[in-house]
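U., I forgot to send this yesterday:
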Amino acid sequence: MLSIQNVTIKTRQPILANFNFEFQPHKVYGLIAPNGSGKTTFFRSVMQLIPSVYGKYQIDGLPIGKQLQKIFYFESSNWFDDNLSGLDYLLFIKQIWGSSIDIKNLIQDWQMIDYIKLPIKNYSLGMKQRLLIGLYEVSDAKYMLMDEITNGLDEGNRDKLFSKIKQLRDNDKMIVISSHYKEDLESICDYELFLENNTMVVKNA
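Result:
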């Protein structure tokens, strides 16, 4: 369980006030909010990349800082080093997260064979997004935070992603996926979280 207790987040402006929630395994949560309202800031705060004003984050009863191998977050393709290859990233994440996922099968599944060994500077946005999804899969983390991960995907790969997310949920993963379009997430979410005006409202999907 990912537990968030009395969390308030404020950067240049207030993002979230006194939020309490427990994210459970075997569930998909859709984080829905307009652009600029704080979705990414919320994810960064969970991952301890920025401080919250106050509050507590725990995974399975322990401080999240001691449990980071149970959670995976890769904010966007902008984080990639363009001089490295996709294979470099897949091998690195597999090692650091201690995963047993078969990289070769994953590369074939996402049709990355033709470019996975090339420097990322040669990738299109769609190629980068498929690699980004691959990092989540290869991490095999119990908890996953996906920030606007459908960006740059064509319809076929978007449908494939949603099918993968359902499979991950059925394998006892917890996934939070953000979007500014409610319609994007309705088909896969168990709960919807609406972030606006410093408040997070949770509803059954």
